[in-house]
């Protein structure tokens, strides 16, 4: 296929040329982290019913996870202990427990597959540092409002949902409509040195009538607090994780200072409980706090997932020791570290030699720091891509979808996949996956 071809097999879409699409998309994604080599020529297309079910399932299961997390103990220390979390790893808790829980699930994005048997949510990312929310907005803008503006495509938008959340938050907390975005260009990847990643959302918030600003950590205290200690920005977005900033050598202590001063940065530190994959395992196994309806909901949308340990489990009606099950049915399972990010700490039985798998299973059983999960596979979908060399090719890809939920509302759907049609552990940063969005067609 030539670089000027407008054929996009299996989509019902037509583009003026591959180069036109590439130029428009890269213009929309300029100065934000986005892989520039192999560029998709269209979004992942989903039926509207599937697109909406993805978001609805993500929001409903998230509510169950909040309930289960709260039920893990009588106080914060007990809940952290139930998940095996060192309190030192969560240094930005506030003393207001009610506020912590109000905004624990403010921003979340599960990883999801549309399988032959329906939607499956395989893990949850939660917190202000949930990645690619800005890219989800900009990609949807590029596809729906620019490249294919003449087609009836639809996408929920993160910026609208986030502004709606801040409106509700300001009204509930009785604060001024003044929002700070707090992050760092140093935390962005692929050589990005511009603040556009943050500026585009600041501009959107201002268009909605907010006083809004972005500050790097070294400017945060002076920017948020007046010389007399009054809050210029009483609410805001925490655009980072402590773990990543610590690894990068970025000082996050100013964030603690503005939190102490009363700035309400979402998501709260309690979101770290929702991010922990052990929580999904506890919900999958069934927690005493769950109603029968909630158990059916989780059974429907979450693959069989269990916290690792030297114990017995029931799988498809048969009782096993967990270790025996994982060794006997290696091809069917994967292991995930409880707090791994970006494809880290994932071992897929299908892609691992027998000796290594046995060692990983035994380590996970002994340390109790992982979950074992039934492997599920995505329905493949056609994707046409222009490579860095200008070649245009179509493959059947297996996308990992990321329906974003902000303030309980649908907020767009990230999509990641290997453009050459491979499957496996998918990560844009670590494994070179393509980044896109899913839209309703």
Blueprint (SSEs and pairs):
Layout: E1 7-8, E2 13-14, H1 18-28, E3 39-40, E4 44-46, H2 48-70, H3 76-82, H4 97-102, E5 107-115, E6 118-126, H5 133-147, H6 158-173, E7 178-182, H7 196-207, E8 211-215, H8 217-224, E9 235-238, H9 242-248, H10 253-260, E10 264-266, H11 271-275, H12 277-285, H13 292-301, E11 305-307, E12 312-315, E13 318-321, H14 322-328, E14 333-337, E15 346-348, H15 354-367, E16 370-374, E17 381-386, E18 392-397, E19 400-406, E20 409-417, H16 428-431, E21 434-440
Parallel strand pairs: 4-21, 7-8, 7-9, 9-10
Antiparallel strand pairs: 1-2, 3-17, 5-6, 5-19, 11-16, 12-13, 14-15, 14-16, 17-18, 19-20, 20-21
Helix pairs in contact: 1-5, 2-12, 2-13, 8-10, 14-15
Characterization of the model:
The protein is α+β, with helices and mostly antiparallel strands and 441 residues long. The protein has a domain of 71 residues. It has 16 helices and 21 strands. The strands form six sheets. The chain has a six-stranded mixed beta sheet. A four-stranded parallel beta sheet has the order 8-7-9-10, with helices on both faces. It has a four-stranded antiparallel beta sheet with strand order 11-16-14-15, sandwiched between helices. α8 runs parallel beside α10 and α14 packs antiparallel against α15. It starts with 6 loop residues before the first strand and ends with a strand. The mean pLDDT is 94.
